[in-house]
Amino acid sequence: MGRLVVYVSGLPKDTSLAEVAEVFKKAGLIKIDPLTTLPKIKLYTDENGDLKSDGTVTFVNKESVEFALRYLDNYHFRENCVIHVEPAKFEPRSNQQNKPVPASVKSELRKKYLAAKYEEERLKSWSDNLDDGTGRRIVISKPMFSMEDAMEIKKYVEVEKVTPIARHPQGVVCIKFKNSLDAEVFISKFNNRLFDGRSLEVYFFDGKTDLQAQAFPSRTAKKPEPEPDLKKDDDFKRDWIEEQSSDEEFEIRTE
């Protein structure tokens, strides 16, 4: 179980379970606590019951843990509030005694665990069937004014494709991710981040804006062909016809 739990520190002291869940669901499905049927998130408190700015989050899949460690460590939880995420470490409790559990309590616990398991499966099925349209996998990042800038992205995240929009005045780059979750985390991680001395603006592509149309025209673009002068063309045809022999000069041939 320990491999599915991350330890979080640096949380605001007025945070809530719902706020923490909203952030960490970016990494994947959070396990359901069978006793509360809520996401299994624990916020530690002091002897007065006040939050201590740390806690744990338990996921369903180990891939989510890896994702959280990679993308949510040093994450801006709020403005001027950066959290830290690391693998949770557990130590056995001292003088812990295993007390017998009554059959009635066991039965009730079993029902709660089954209910929690059912809720996890329902959420997993729902998330697997989400419409992951291309628009939710394509992210716009700007300003990046060179191919070298655009390719730098691949050093930080795994992407399917990076496409700089040639001659765009704002240095726009389109980034295609494997899924919408990767794209969402990239946005939360890199929006307003300084890159080569410039503050990045990162957001989902709306699927409608014609980015190529916003680009400056190429200097090597071909000049448009001049439209034909219809008046001159008509004059030419009329002169040509008048120069031809009339039908009277020819005899219709019959077999």
UniProtKB/TrEMBL annotation:
<keyword id="KW-0677">Repeat</keyword>
<keyword id="KW-0508">mRNA splicing</keyword>
<comment type="similarity">
    <text>Belongs to the HTATSF1 family.</text>
</comment>
<feature type="region of interest" description="Disordered">
    <location>
        <begin position="215"/>
        <end position="255"/>
    </location>
</feature>
<dbReference type="Pfam" id="PF00076">
    <property type="entry name" value="RRM_1"/>
</dbReference>
<dbReference type="InterPro" id="IPR034392">
    <property type="entry name" value="TatSF1-like_RRM1"/>
</dbReference>
<dbReference type="GO" id="GO:0005684">
    <property type="term" value="C:U2-type spliceosomal complex"/>
</dbReference>
<dbReference type="GO" id="GO:0003723">
    <property type="term" value="F:RNA binding"/>
</dbReference>
<dbReference type="InterPro" id="IPR034393">
    <property type="entry name" value="TatSF1-like"/>
</dbReference>
<dbReference type="InterPro" id="IPR000504">
    <property type="entry name" value="RRM_dom"/>
</dbReference>
<dbReference type="GO" id="GO:0005686">
    <property type="term" value="C:U2 snRNP"/>
</dbReference>
<feature type="compositionally biased region" description="Acidic residues">
    <location>
        <begin position="242"/>
        <end position="255"/>
    </location>
</feature>
<dbReference type="InterPro" id="IPR035979">
    <property type="entry name" value="RBD_domain_sf"/>
</dbReference>
<keyword id="KW-0507">mRNA processing</keyword>
<dbReference type="InterPro" id="IPR012677">
    <property type="entry name" value="Nucleotide-bd_a/b_plait_sf"/>
</dbReference>
<protein>
    <recommendedName>
        <fullName>RRM domain-containing protein</fullName>
    </recommendedName>
</protein>
<feature type="compositionally biased region" description="Basic and acidic residues">
    <location>
        <begin position="222"/>
        <end position="241"/>
    </location>
</feature>
<dbReference type="GO" id="GO:0000398">
    <property type="term" value="P:mRNA splicing, via spliceosome"/>
</dbReference>
<keyword id="KW-0694">RNA-binding</keyword>
<feature type="domain" description="RRM">
    <location>
        <begin position="4"/>
        <end position="90"/>
    </location>
</feature>
